[in-house]
Amino acid sequence: MTTANKVALDPLYQLTDAELDARIVAAKAALGNRCVILGHHYQREEVYRYADLTGDSLKLARLASQRPEADYILFCGVHFMAEVADILSAPHQTAILPDMAAGCSMADMADLPAVEDCWRQLNTLLDAEATLTPITYVNSAADLKGFCGEHGGTVCTSSNAAHVLKWAFGEREKVLFFPDQHLGRNTGAAMGIGLEEMVLWRPTEPMGGLTPAQIKAAKIILWDGFCSVHQLFQPAHIEQWRQRLPGVQVICHPECSFEVCQKADALGSTELIQSRVREAPAGSQFVIGTELNLVNRLKHEMPEKEIHFLSPTLCMCSTMFRIDPQHLLWSLENLIAGEVVNPIVVPAQQAAMAKVALERMLAIV
Ligand code: 13P
Ligand code: SF4
């Protein structure tokens, strides 16, 4: 953050909630259509309420490319989401992340040098270009999406992973899936791929810690990455809820472990979780295994349904939480002052290849 910014952040922490609200509403009105605020479902309520458009990663990626009238796409989410908005939006548009510290710890578990090294090592055993399709979960840096674009692969989200894997197996015999092992394993298992055909690549070990026989027999090579929030949910939590509320519907996000997902009634993206609960009749009982802010919002929105959070401890995405009303106001008022703070600009060459991978995904589903 530079000291030259026309509107400073620190004093905004002295404002009352009512003052913050009045200034955010006024700033949004002053900017009008020039600025669209996108909000991920994990955003805290004090920020989410100002989003013009909300959704899961796939929906937000599509929306980012469908608002050409907005010069600014202000992303209340995490860094990789704002990168996707930058890549898919028009050249005259600028994506903004109100707090640069809003990253994703899972996305940080795979980086380009490590994935390139993995590809090189696999190539000593297989003809990587001919046999492997690289698929990156959208929760990844733009250069990894670029890697997939360059090597005939694509991107997936939690809502289209099955379609994307199906497409990949129509292209080549194996998939290298990063960074989330759980999404890859849960999706593969739902497609009938055996656990023994999905092996775990540990990037710090030679050959990922795998034998040549394991690699040759594998259909999916899973990167050893995970979400630190979703890994907190345990199969025992589901068992406890089922004892307490027989007949309850358990819905989990596919970033939860295989053991948790096997015990759930349904798996889905944040958007799917929201629609399943909204569509259910009054009196329905749900236990939900995903980030706390979304579950609490659904609870408040639908008091006529019984909605519980799966874990007895808090599972919150601390990086999503970085975006607070103060940062939102700071970004908006600086735009009014002609100052763009925290623009997300993916370097042109990286963006071009990442766009290839993202457009491939959008063409699949
Ligand atoms: P969704 O695409 O389901 O919104 O998930 C994004 C995410 O980061 C979940 O942890
Ligand atoms: Fe990343 Fe997990 Fe947060 Fe989603 S919940 S943004 S995967 S750290």
Automatic annotation (TrEMBL):
Family as reported in the entry's similarity comment: Belongs to the quinolinate synthase family. Type 3 subfamily.
Protein known as: Quinolinate synthase
Cofactor(s) needed: [4Fe-4S] cluster
Organism: Magnetococcus marinus (strain ATCC BAA-1437 / JCM 17883 / MC-1)
HAMAP family for the chain: NadA_type3 (MF_00569)
Pathway where this protein functions: Cofactor biosynthesis; NAD(+) biosynthesis; quinolinate from iminoaspartate: step 1/1
NCBIfam families (alphabetical): nadA, PRK09375.2-4
Function description: Catalyzes the condensation of iminoaspartate with dihydroxyacetone phosphate to form quinolinate.
Catalytic function, reaction form: iminosuccinate + dihydroxyacetone phosphate = quinolinate + phosphate + 2 H2O + H(+)
GN (gene name): nadA
